[in-house]
Amino acid sequence: MVMVWTLEVAGSLIPEQHLMLDHRSCADIIPDESVPDLNSFLSLWLASYLLSLLAQSCLDFYHKMLLLSLLPYCWFLGLSTALAVPSNQIDSEISIRNVAKTKIRGEECINSPTCRNCWDGDFSIGTDSEEEWPNTGKTVKYVFEVTEKLMAPDGTPRDMIVVNGQYPGPTIVANWGDIVQVDVTNHLKNNGQVFTSTELFRSTPVLRMEQMVLQSVLFHLERLEDTLGKLHSMEHPGITLITLPSTVTGFSA
Amino acid sequence: MILINGPAAVDYDIDLGVLPITDFYYQSMYTEGRSASGVAPLPGAPPGPPVANNGLINGTNVNANGGGHFANLTLVAGKKYRLRLVNTAVDNHFQVSLDQHTFTVIQSDFVPIVPYETNWLFIGIGQRYDIVFTACQQPASYWFRAEVQAGCGANAMSGKIKAIFNYAGATTANPTSLPVKNFTNSCLDESAKKLVPYVAKDVPESEFRKSYATESARETLSVSLTGTPGTGNAFFWNINNNSLVIDWEQPTLKYIADKNTTYHTDKKLGIIELPDADVVYDFSHLYFITKLTPPSGYSG
């Protein structure tokens, strides 16, 4: 029995012109880590000390000039280092959140270990994923073979129902905006049912049934939006097709 | 398991992927289910949710006799990690923690949230949380703990459901680490005050003004839990006073394929009919507000 199960990680009917809300550079969004600003503190302290020396009248002209010539340097050093890291005074989470919603044009905002809130330049953590999502045009395909197998996850043997002979089951990996297609074949000898079509599918259409005979179901799940943002639970809907046991976490979790 | 790459609210170096945590039973679901409902009790087992034989983290754990092995993840000191936790249990709620490390929670059920920090994280059945933590401790092995919460799950190996997070180069012997702090037993979700969506969407006020109950009783779904322990008819979740019972050889869609209209009257199928055909129903604004009082005597 074969079931083709397709879900779209973000939706196919993407408008041609989506809003360019989150076009900004990583540097605009990520505040620097807070670092103790010893440099600026010392420089400003030195400047103050020099000023206090200047105030003393016992210094000769030469020394006064020497001190005066040092002052601008200290002020410059102190102020510039103090001003260079203003973000360490801001609550980083709040500032990230606000800036991520701000429209800043210019540099691309590309996901990287230090720019995780960015995605591909057009989308980011600030994107309302119910309204817009990337259109990758890519379909990620998986083949699931469901079988019975004697396994011992904790050393105690028991019969299990597994996908592709492994437990835990395979992980479906996709990018935001991809379409995921899973072709499932039920090889169970003693159990007819295999799936709970759970949670992945938002609002809609859920299923277009193309073929339906006992133990052989072919259907498509269409236009599933905003998977980044939400995977709504549809566990135990009236449409109970097949039930994957909890051993296959991909579907029932 | 599902892993969807996308933006995240907090930076990290390495995505460790999905880490499933579950209860584990030596009997089949069929056997346990019949025992739980009182139809065919296992020797010594009272009706009601069975006590799990063990718990598994990433599909493995040590059993009561010392068999099996702990799940083992390797960390590189100084790196920041993302971990996608999911509770795939049937009946156990967990609080999880990594000894001597703090979690930053960034995502709840696939919804990015405003990050917050915690030492212990409550994960209900079917829930997912993505967390970020830094491998910032002395290179060694540390326990990752999944503690079953009394009152919302029972497990024969409670307190021993663990995995090992091992710093690269450190000893691979079982950790001797201690919890960063003790957890307070709880059956409550993470506080709603902490679970603030990154992109907040307000429920339209107009939706609240709509009183479904007076418009049509059909649109009101009452959720309840029935059964009395020890009576042999325990623990059925009901919607509209009805518990879903499906004959696996006669799935609901097959009625339609067979043009068999008896599904209209068969309550066990749990079908909720919508009044008008060819109308687009917008379920995107469907809110459940439930208030549940468990029957007295219920525990576990």
What does it look like?
The complex is a heterodimer of chains A (253) and B (300). Chain A is built from five helices and seven strands; from the N terminus they run βααααββββββα. Chain A is of the alpha+beta class. Chain A has a four-stranded mixed beta sheet with strand order 1-5-2-3, with no helix packed on it. Residues 1-37, 55-59, 77-105 and 192-253 of chain A have low confidence and may be disordered. With 300 residues, chain B is mainly beta. Chain B is built from four helices and 14 strands. A six-stranded mixed beta sheet of chain B has the order 3-2-5-10-7-8, with no helix packed on it. In chain B, strands 4-12-11-6-9 form a five-stranded mixed beta sheet, with no helix packed on it. A two-stranded antiparallel sheet of chain B has the order 13-14. Residues 209-218 and 288-300 of chain B have low confidence and may be disordered. The chains are: A alpha+beta (253), B mainly beta (300). At the A-B interface, helix 4, strand 4, strand 6 and helix 5 of A face strand 1, strand 2, strand 5, strand 8 and helix 4 of B.
